[in-house]
Amino acid sequence: MKTAVVTDSTSYIPKHIRENLDIYMIPLNVIINGEPYKEEIDISAPDFYEEVRNGSELPTTSQPPIGEFEELYSQLAKEYDAIISIHLSSGISGTYQGAVAAAEMAENVKIYTYDSEISCMPQGFYVLEAAWMAQQGNGPEEILPRLDELKAAMKACFMVDDLSHLQRGGRLSSAQAIIGGLLNIKPVLHFENKVIVPFEKIRTRKKALKRIQEMLGEDVDKGMRLKATIIHANRVQEAAEWKSELEALYPTVEFSISYFGPVIGTHLGEGAMGLGWTVK
Question: Which residues lie closer than 8 Å to 57 by C-beta, 6 or more apart?
């Protein structure tokens, strides 16, 4: 069985890697000063943060039209027997539901939609694993159970400089009173039941990042073989320094660096930092 792997742009997998692994990508949109851009196609992350700094309006985002999924699935049906379509958490975007709706209308191909229940490179971990397995000749019956193994161990925590972006966009699932109480601190956030919720209230950026790395250390201490990704919102140097520090602390973990692109960056704001990990 020949299996295609589809994802959306919020997995932030670089183009050359997508091409090498035959990963197909549907872009989400960011709207800046009334102008729509397909992220990872029309606008890069660095250009996005520059536009936001210079713009008068805060950007907004939108999910892909169902028709884009239908068109891609129809094209892939000519070459593949099955499609695994992996998307950002259904709790923060309608993108996954769009993929499901398009899959139900598809003909001549079996489509398996997969809710990553997360976003960014942690979502990308599922995509990369699925694509690698598909290239080895594995089909959905082998790939999907492996993705569930990754999900069982998947963790991601992040902190933002300013919670108002999440509050305004409705992506932070919590009572208004709790949100208001958090606005002046640097909370550690995580995904729980597909949505973003506060994990712990912390007063400074340095302490928030230290708490996140301690959480990774707890899983390392359990003897788990892990891969981890540092995710940053236009903080290239800080991410590189944190990677060096983490590699010294946890030499058994395989680290990489990724980024919060335009769509997720719209909701987190510049300066956000995160760490995601799962089993190798």
Answer: 32, 33, 34
